[in-house]
Design brief:
Elements lengths: L1 H28 L4 E7 L14 E7 L7 E9 L2 H5 L6 E2 L3 E2 L6 E2 L10 E10 L11 E4 L13 E2 L10 E9 L3 E11 L1 E6 L2 E2 L15 E8 L7 E10 L23 E10 L4 E5 L5 E4 L2 E5 L3 E5 L18 E2 L1 E2 L6 E4 L5 E7 L3 E6 L2 E18 L6 E7 L1 E2 L5 E2 L26 E5 L6 E3 L6 E9 L10 E8 L5 E5 L2 H16 L17 H14 L3 H14 L23 H4 L1 H13 L3 H20 L21 H22 L3 H22 E2 L4 E2 L4 H9 L8 H14 L8 H13 L3 H8 L7 H6 L22 H11 L1 E3 L6 E4 L9 E8 L2 E10 L2 E8 L4 E7 L7 E2 L2 E2 L6 E7 L2 E6 L2 E8 L12
Parallel strand pairs: 14-23, 20-30, 38-42
Antiparallel strand pairs: 1-2, 2-6, 3-4, 3-5, 3-7, 7-8, 9-22, 10-15, 10-18, 11-14, 11-16, 12-13, 12-15, 16-17, 18-21, 19-20, 24-33, 25-26, 26-31, 26-32, 26-33, 27-30, 27-32, 28-29, 34-39, 35-36, 37-38, 39-40, 40-41, 41-47, 42-46, 43-44, 43-47, 45-46
Helix pairs in contact: 4-7, 4-16, 5-7, 8-9, 9-10, 11-12, 11-13, 13-14, 13-16
């Protein structure tokens, strides 16, 4: 018995030991790496996308340094439950040996219309250890073909003259437990959908603006929780938007080839638990009536008469016996596509900082911030009282609103120009007529404005700061970057840049949110790198580049604004603007590793370069706009246009090489070299080292595009610096030269000169704007024009590149360059950027005689770090020598910096602060 007990005890101990060993082995086999940040086509859990094989992305988090992915597995299922049970019925990639974690193409069969796909990822680290599965994410296919839609386009009227915004409604019954319900709709120009008395979704100004005779966008909403057993009511209100512009302006959108009265296509798909599917579509069964929005215009504003409201119209049981049957109308000429980008939303509500009464009964609300959006009015008073809200960004000497500059292009109806002395037509003006019952709260639906001030008249009693609030609206792109430094002026410039960009992203990148609201191509590409550092605009840019492609004429010509009704092909374009069509896709490749956008538009990119070749003379292009609004002499158009022609040829050559088109790569490389030779032969003056008329823009153009022969580069750089110094450290450039100038000085070893330019407070400079009260960037250096433009915004990208020192060293930041510049009077700077591979941080500080640099590099990437130091031996990382730290390898000494190769993780470098060097010349 005793022997048996001993044997059982030994057996139990052995079993316990085996269990512990197994547990230990299991723990050892599991990496600390976590998979997060799942996205599909740059979006988080998108619904209703058209892309048949979307691209996926994830990021890694790890406590270990120098950690990387060596393999991945993606599992995709038709239900979340199936995914939980690891049943990848839509796609199981298996274990794929690869370090790719972005732009991973879905390898399953294209999903049918309306199909949901749940997916998750696990990865293996550099030691072959597997991670846990990520949390699940999903995307849904939309209705990508005309055959997928069961409804017909309907409208209240075919008249395009100003009409009350129509209401359309339909009741239907639900007779079972709903598993899933999706509402797909395209209401042109803008729509607001309502279901059972509540607004559907949180979007505003849907759908996004396009050239509607080429493409219109539909939107997908999850309405599962808004349905109820029994009777339901679906209602849609339509506004004119850009589809039916009846305000006459210089761009003549009132004559657009797509112009028509507002119309609607909608389909509600209801899936029941018992497997049944039911659809409710737009057809003749819908009823329609005019609504309380009695007038709306994207430029002029909106009028709402609360007395005309139809209470309960969006609820079941409403008596619509007096309503008319909806008319079936012809569809827009363009294809119907998913709105595969972030929607416009109300992102903030601002309370005024000041309220004044410059004249009796005229109240001026100051929001303290220039912005895009509209006002929310909260008021009570007698029925029929009409309150008027006018919006603007400047004041007259008497303290009342000044709209003259931003309304300058609006015309009286039918007039080609505004006659001298003619009154200003209505512009950025909303009116609200009270119904006279309790406290009434209202804001416009189908317009937006650019403003800091709201001037209100017609109020029945004296207002308070809570009478009017600003509702900030823009395409709701997520923030990607943060920058701050010890110079308060630069922080205010950064603040102004971010607000200017968001004010000018309204489903297209615009020039200003008030006067024009146009998609100027030059403004767009000049601000694109800033946008990428500060936000996540990739989906929005992908959409807009498609708009640009659809604006191209068979000749290869592009207009200066996109979308365009036809205006901008004869003036306002040219290579310095049109090159947005090549530059923005190239930026998406550089910053996101996106080759699909290059592949999709390659043929038209090549067509555009061929068009420029047809317009060139001996390699020189002299068409279009040049360096816009410089404070001094302007560089000739032929200089800047030829510079873009050269860069466009290089982009086509590089894109061809990436796409395996070797013959094209050779052809356009040779073309670029011929342009370069012609540029130098025509414009370079070897005896002086100057280009053309010697302006800062002329010199910076040659240096920025690497047109300058290496033999003469130093002399040209020196001439540029001398001109800046001669002007007291000021720029003398317009929108093109300003972007070139700061980057050329950085790349040629003189960030100190660029910093002096960027931190000026006297004219012309960003600081001069700030000193004059700017909260967004202005259109001109003297501030005479619009005060909410983004075309001078690349200064913010320079903050990230130069002062924080964050730059891609390989496409998509797979390899990162950290090269901060401790220049001028700066004592610290911090930049953070959420790249497609994860968060990058560069933070440095000068303190107690030392330069301290903290760097965070995301897992599955590497970086090269430049630490200002006379030798690697003087640099520490953590508590010991940098060149012996884990994950750190000394690479070389370059131009006064010790250069280290590092893997992922957080590193803390420190070096003596004496005699900090300037940046080494790195070229372009």
């Amino acid at each position: 018995m005793k022997a048996m007990t001993m044997r059982l005890g030994t057996t139990c101990l052995l079993a316990l030991a085996a269990l512990l060993l197994t547990a230990s082995a299991g723990t050892a086999a599991r990496t600390s790496m976590r998979v997060t940040g799942l996205q599909c086509e740059y979006l988080v859990n998108p619904r209703g996308i058209d892309t048949p094989r979307p691209r996926l992305r994830w990021v890694h988090e790890s406590r270990e340094r120098a950690q990387r992915q060596t393999a991945y597995q993606v599992l995709a299922a038709s239900t979340e439950a199936g995914l939980d049970e690891e049943q990848g019925d839509l796609w199981d990639s298996g274990k794929v040996v690869s370090d790719q974690s972005a732009q991973v193409v879905f390898g399953g069969e294209p999903l049918p219309a309306g199909q949901a796909c749940w997916w998750k990822v696990r990865v293996w680290d550099q030691d072959g250890r597997a991670s846990s599965w990520s949390r699940p994410a999903y995307w849904e296919r939309g209705l990508p073909t005309p055959a997928d839609w069961g409804g017909r386009w309907i409208a209240r009227t075919a008249e395009t003259s100003a009409q009350p915004a129509p209401l359309l409604r339909r009741e239907f019954s639900i007779d079972g437990k709903v598993r899933r319900a999706r509402l797909y709709l395209c209401g042109l120009g803008y729509h607001e959908a309502r279901l059972n008395g509540a607004k559907v979704g949180d979007h505003v100004l849907d759908p996004g603006y396009t050239r509607y005779d080429r493409r219109a966008l539909y939107v997908t909403h999850d309405v599962t929780d808004q349905l109820r057993q029994g009777q339901n009511a679906l209602g849609v209100m339509l506004g004119n938007g850009w589809y039916n512009v009846h305000t006459v302006a210089v761009w003549y959108f009132d004559k657009a080839p797509w112009r028509a009265a507002p119309k609607l296509l909608a389909e509600l798909r209801v899936e029941y638990d018992d497997g049944r599917t039911e659809t409710i579509v737009t057809d003749e069964q819908w009823k329609t009536a005019p609504g309380p929005v009695v007038w709306d215009s994207i430029y002029a504003g909106e009028s709402y008469d609360a007395r005309q409201e139809k209470p309960g119209w969006d609820r079941p049981g409403y008596n619509d016996g007096a309503w008319e049957a909806a008319r079936v109308v012809s569809p827009p000429a363009g294809v119907l596509s998913a709105q595969q980008m972030e929607p416009i939303r109300v992102t903030q509500t601002l309370r005024p900082v000041k309220l004044t009464e410059p004249k009796p009964g005229v109240y001026l609300f100051d929001m303290g911030q220039n912005l895009s959006g509209r006002a929310r009015l909260q008021i009570s008073g007698p029925a029929g009282t009409e309150v008027t809200l006018k919006y603007g960004e400047k004041l007259l000497p008497d303290g009342t609103l000044d709209q003259r500059e931003i309304a300058v292009h609006i015309r009286p109806f039918g007039a080609p120009e505004r006659p001298a002395g003619a009154p200003q037509p209505r512009f950025q003006t909303d009116t609200y007529t009270l119904k006279g019952r309790g406290t009434e709260t209202w804001e416009p639906r189908f317009t937006y404005h650019g403003f800091q001030y709201v001037q209100v008249t017609g109020l029945p009693r004296k207002p308070s700061l809570d009478t009017v609030h600003a509702r900030v609206t823009h395409t709701d792109v997520r923030s990607a970057g943060e920058f701050a430094c010890s110079n308060p002026l630069l922080n205010r410039i950064q603040h102004a840049t971010r607000w200017a960009f968001l004010s000018n992203l309204a489903s297209i990148p615009t020039d200003c949110p008030h006067r024009e609201k146009n998609g100027w191509t030059g403004d767009a590409h000049l601000a694109a790198e800033q946008a990428i550092y500060n936000f996540h605009p990739a989906a929005a840019y992908t959409k807009w580049i498609q708009d640009v492609a659809e604006a191209m004429r068979p000749s290869g010509e592009l207009p200066g604004i996109v979308p365009s009704s036809g205006w901008g092909y004869d003036w306002g374009n040219g290579p310095a603007w049109d090159s947005a069509f090549l530059l923005i896709p190239w930026y998406l490749y550089e910053y996101y590793g996106d080759t699909r956008i290059l592949e999709r538009h390659y043929d038209q990119m090549r067509q555009y370069v061929d068009y420029l070749t047809s317009r060139s003379q001996n390699g020189i292009v002299n068409i279009g706009l040049g360096d816009w609004v410089p404070p001094g002499p302007t560089a000739p158009v032929e200089v800047t246009s030829t510079g873009y022609y050269y860069e466009d040829a290089r982009i086509v050559a590089r894109a061809a090489d990436l796409l395996g088109k070797k013959d094209d790569a050779a052809k356009y490389t040779a073309l670029a070299e011929r342009i370069r030779a012609a540029f130098n032969e025509r414009f370079f003056k070897a005896e002086t080292g100057l280009y053309s008329n010697g302006t800062q823009t002329a010199l910076a153009t040659a240096l920025n595009w690497n047109l300058t022969p290496e033999l003469h580069r130093r002399r040209v750089v020196r001439n540029l610096i001398m001109d800046v110094q001669k002007k007291g450290g000021h720029l003398d450039t317009g929108i093109l030269g300003t972007k070139y100038l700061l980057n050329v000085l950085l790349d040629n070893g003189r960030p100190d000169v660029a910093y002096r330019v960027a931190s000026q407070t006297t004219y012309p400079s960003w600081g001069h704007w700030i000193e004059r009260g700017a909260t967004t960037l202005w259109e001109t250096w003297n501030g005479a024009d619009s005060q909410n433009h983004i075309m001078f915004g690349d200064v913010s990208a320079w903050f990230y590149r130069a002062l924080a020192g964050i730059r891609p060293a390989a496409p998509g930041f797979k390899r990162i360059r950290i090269q901060p510049q401790p220049v001028g009077d700066l004592t610290w700077a911090r930049g953070a950027y959420d790249s497609i591979h994860g968060r990058i941080v560069s933070e440095w500080r000068l303190e107690d005689g030392r330069f301290d640099l903290t760097v965070t590099i995301p897992a599955n990437t590497t970086a090269v770090v430049y630490v200002p130091a006379e030798s690697a031996a003087s640099v520490t990382e953590g508590d010991g020598p940098a060149d012996r730290a884990k994950g750190v390898r000394f690479q070389r000494q370059e131009g006064g910096s010790a250069v280290f190769e590092i893997g992922s993780g957080t590193y803390r470098f420190s070096a003596p602060a004496a005699r900090l060097p300037l940046a080494a010349s790195a070229g372009k």
